[in-house]
């Protein structure tokens, strides 16, 4: 008996292969190398009536094939597994399959329709493995089982905003693991500071939001703490987050400030409100960037200098100097691919109370080119008969491989998943 099965996977995927045979006398089963990838490590599980030869192959980056041979006095079978990589993938294909979102402070990973067919649909099981440290042994990564859910939106509350994580998706019935996906969990704008510059103007600084999706702009929202209905807004380009001049502020008043990142796809990511008291008009600032004012232990208003992002106070506590790279530690900065001329400056939208949602909808008029993508031409798999995972099924003489099906006269199938547990296949 000879046969062939084709499996289509993503570049960099891993496969758990098994070649199973049962019967008396027990057949001998082994792998024969037929491509670039080695057939070691491999191991055998057997008793008097069956033999299973397991093989794990990682980081498959080119088309290849594997041969499984089973033999006993009753017959001989040879099965070839042909592994093909998905074609017509864009250079940024890893970013096309999943995106992390910050939804009311909770991280959720959204999986797109670009996923391979074997990961789609409520009938296909899956496991998600994730970690913040890819050097850890894979068996120690966090595991999220499917539990009958489709792979679309998966909330992962254990993930922290503004951090980098590594994620692998497994289809356990087919024995396929995807390559590692790197994701950055979004984090809203932070470290909002309001002060006075050397010209006496009230200015606002904030640390940019972190996200893998392109940020279109920021909306600054501020209002008196005693009058939440008197809301004012200001819009700033994505590359202007320092020394933004604010108008309409009264001295010695508590204000609340929020900064909302607006994404190209229409989503918003808002910061938490920050309450800041504006200084009195008669206080002078002699700092290079800006001053913040606060009360000391005796109730006196004192000024302290601060610097914009990427700078720190010098020894004179007034001027600013760049922060060295080794001082920044492992901070991950994400620069949105949005080009804005340096001549652009923040613009005030209104100083009258305005509904925030109305404001955003009015400012969304922009031209956007739609990219027409051709459907992916996936490799066609045409064994004589297949189950839902594309595994060849033979009625009489059977040889079982990763597509998990069969061997020779007098042999019966014992099918296993990626953890080598027996499973039942539907007819």
From TrEMBL:
Skewed-composition ranges (Polar residues):
413-427
Q: Which residues form the Ig-like domain?
A: 1-82
UniProt xrefs under SMART domains: IGc2 (SM00408)
Concerning SUPFAM superfamilies, the annotation shows:
Fibronectin type III, Immunoglobulin
Q: Which residues form the Fibronectin type-III domain?
A: 188-281
Q: What ranges does the record give for the region Disordered, renumbered to this chain?
A: 405-427
Protein name per UniProt? Ig-like domain-containing protein
Q: Which organism is it from?
A: Brugia timori
Q: What is the lineage of its organism?
A: Eukaryota, Metazoa, Ecdysozoa, Nematoda, Chromadorea
């Amino acid at each position: 008996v000879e046969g062939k099965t084709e499996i289509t996977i993503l570049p960099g995927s891993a496969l758990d292969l098994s070649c199973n045979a049962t019967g008396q006398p027990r057949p001998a089963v082994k792998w024969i190398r037929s491509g670039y990838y080695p057939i070691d490590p491999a191991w055998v599980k057997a008793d008097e009536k069956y033999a299973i030869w397991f093989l794990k192959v990682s980081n498959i980056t080119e088309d290849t094939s594997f041969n499984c041979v089973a033999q006993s006095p009753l017959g001989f079978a040879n099965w070839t597994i042909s592994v093909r990589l998905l074609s017509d993938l864009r250079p940024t294909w890893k970013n096309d399959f999943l995106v992390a979102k910050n939804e009311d402070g909770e991280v959720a990973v959204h999986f797109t329709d670009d996923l391979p067919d074997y990961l789609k649909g409520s009938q296909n099981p899956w496991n998600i493995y994730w970690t913040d440290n890819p050097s850890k042994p894979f068996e120690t990564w966090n595991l999220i089982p499917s539990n009958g859910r489709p792979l679309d939106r998966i909330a992962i509350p254990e993930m922290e905003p503004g951090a980098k994580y590594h994620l692998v998706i497994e289809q356990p019935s087919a024995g396929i693991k995807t390559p590692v996906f790197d994701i950055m969990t979004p984090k809203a704008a932070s470290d909002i500071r309001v002060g006075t510059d050397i010209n006496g103007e009230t200015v606002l600084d904030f640390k940019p939001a972190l996200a893998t999706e392109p940020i279109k702009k920021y909306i600054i929202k501020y209002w008196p703490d005693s009058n939440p209905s008197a809301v004012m807004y200001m819009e700033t380009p994505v590359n202007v987050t320092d020394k933004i001049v604010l108008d309409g502020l009264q001295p010695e008043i508590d204000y609340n400030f929020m900064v909302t990142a607006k994404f190209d796809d229409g989503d918003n990511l808002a910061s938490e409100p920050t309450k800041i008291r504006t200084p009195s008009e008669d206080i002078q600032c002699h700092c290079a960037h800006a001053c913040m004012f606060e009360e000391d232990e005796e109730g006196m208003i004192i000024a302290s200098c601060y610097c914009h992002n990427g700078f720190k106070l010098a020894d004179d506590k007034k001027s600013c100097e760049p922060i060295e790279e080794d001082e920044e530690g492992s901070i991950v900065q994400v620069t949105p691919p949005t080009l804005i001329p340096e001549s652009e400056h923040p613009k005030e939208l209104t100083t009258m109370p305005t509904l925030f949602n109305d404001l955003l909808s009015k400012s969304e008029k922009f031209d956007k080119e739609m990219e027409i993508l051709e459907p992916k031409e996936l490799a066609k798999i045409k064994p004589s008969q297949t189950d839902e995972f594309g595994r060849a099924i033979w009625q009489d003489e059977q040889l079982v491989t990763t597509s998990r099906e069969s061997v020779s006269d007098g042999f019966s199938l014992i099918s296993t998943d990626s953890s080598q547990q027996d499973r039942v296949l539907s007819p």
